[in-house]
From TrEMBL, chains A, B:
NCBIfam families: PRK05463.1 (NF003969). This is Putative hydro-lyase FY036_14870. Its EC number is 4.2.1.-. Pfam families: D-Glu_cyclase. It comes from the Bacteria. GO terms for molecular function: lyase activity. Belongs to the D-glutamate cyclase family. The lineage of its organism: Bacteria, Pseudomonadati, Pseudomonadota, Alphaproteobacteria, Hyphomicrobiales. It comes from Neoaquamicrobium microcysteis. Gene3D superfamilies: PSTPO5379-like, PSTPO5379-like domain.
Length: 260, 260
């Protein structure tokens, strides 16, 4: 893994494409939106597209490709989705299989690419407003939990919403709600705050994904819909093959982070 | 007390002026901003103006008059502040004195009028979005509490912030935060949510002003800066005379409620 300074999505993608960057993308090319990737055979694409449209908080769609076309001109100049992420994870029949740095050997003419907004741009906005983000300060991954909130189903895609949790002082929780509401492409406003049990989370210290959270005395836990939700829906649908980004290794787009 | 349908601030003010309306103004002339009134001798006016500017959440200024001038052309056509509210309360040396329906007998050439935004327009916005407001549904006044949050002092004006509390389901609490943040003239975003003790409130069932709240199971209490704060600051400053609106009997302005 190498890291460096990248001023734009174009520069990050070029570094991924020629193998100079294979690490995480958190903090790179600040001001540009990063995206979760999901690649599916076209037989699944229509259902998955409807799933995203019906569940815009966990799955805010930034872009969708034509079948077999590795470009996504709506969200970035000259994107080659087969090579422009640092690392990919392959699922076969819903189970994790290989982890690869390009898709040259796997690409199919019926692959459709979906790019879904991620919370990095939201966290950048929090930090820019001097709102402490506990897991970043602690050098951990965000804590994520499977909830009892059911997503809207579409074909074989469905299942519970996965949320990420960030805790704040009450004052900062209020500011985080307002800020995130203005970033619908980064999951928007939270789906819950306060009592974790109300959305089926038994113990905040036992996240289903990510790291144990660092919750300060007096903090309010705030819960956002998470991009792991559509990934879980894909696993439940068990397509013969699906390709997603390796966690933290996102597509950096040319879209600017802007308050709506 | 009589009530009726009033389409605008002009109509409400005319009804107050000729004695047809002497009751509360909640729900009248929807879509128009209502304001708290504070009238002070000019010797206090500069300090109180700075107090409001330094504390925009409890005291969002809608308008301020010239000394002795009963009009406020910035916020309403032909306002006569001496007659355009349904009822006024007089304080002498910080203590409540008479309650009157006009100021003809009390007016002085050095009186300066301050009109401060109130939460009615915010509550209207909540109801319009189908967010239940517990105290309205229960036919009660909102519960208000003195906190341990000190306001910024200016001259003799200072003291603790008074907050109003509204409780919601977590989902509606998030929506109420977002909505209110877009209405800075109606006290804006909340100052606190969750644990009342964190801002010095020992018992939600014992409000300092207003009625006992109706809190549903699973509700999150949300706290907004309240227009009672500047009124308390005036009482602490003990001017020889100060005139405010009778609680709930506001000035209805020509300003539209609009999301900023």
């Amino acid at each position: 893994m190498t890291t460096g300074y990248y001023a734009s999505g174009t520069e990050v993608r070029a570094a991924c494409r020629d193998g100079r960057h294979t690490g995480q993308t958190s903090g790179l090319a600040q001001g540009f939106q990063q995206g979760n990737l999901a690649i599916l055979p076209s037989a699944y694409a229509d259902d998955f597209l409807r799933y995203c449209v019906r569940n815009p908080k966990p799955a805010p769609l930034l872009g969708v490709s034509e079948p077999g076309d590795p470009s996504l001109p709506q969200i970035g100049r000259d994107i080659d989705i087969r090579r422009d992420l640092p690392r990919y994870r392959v699922f076969r029949n819903g189970e994790p299989a290989e982890s690869v740095t390009d898709l040259d050997a796997l690409w199919r003419d019926d692959f459709v690419s979906f790019v879904i907004g991620c919370s990095f741009s939201f966290e950048t906005a929090l930090l820019r407003d001097d709102i402490p983000v506990r897991h970043i300060a602690a050098g951990r991954n965000v804590a994520m939990y499977v909830t009892n909130i059911e997503t809207e189903q579409a074909g074989p895609f469905g299942g519970p919403m996965v949320v990420s949790m960030r805790s704040f002082s009450p004052r900062d929780a209020i500011r985080a709600v307002i800020l995130s509401s203005r970033l619908p492409e980064a999951h928007g406003a939270p789906v819950h705050l306060g009592d974790p049990a109300a959305i089926g989370i038994a113990d905040l210290s036992k996240p289903d994904f990510g790291d144990v959270p660092d919750i300060h005395a007096g903090d309010v836990p705030v819960f956002w819909a998470c991009g792991v939700t559509p990934q879980s829906a894909i696993r439940r649908a068990r397509p013969e093959i699906a390709i997603v980004h390796e966690p933290g290794h996102m597509l950096v787009t040319d879209l600017r982070v802007s308050m709506s």
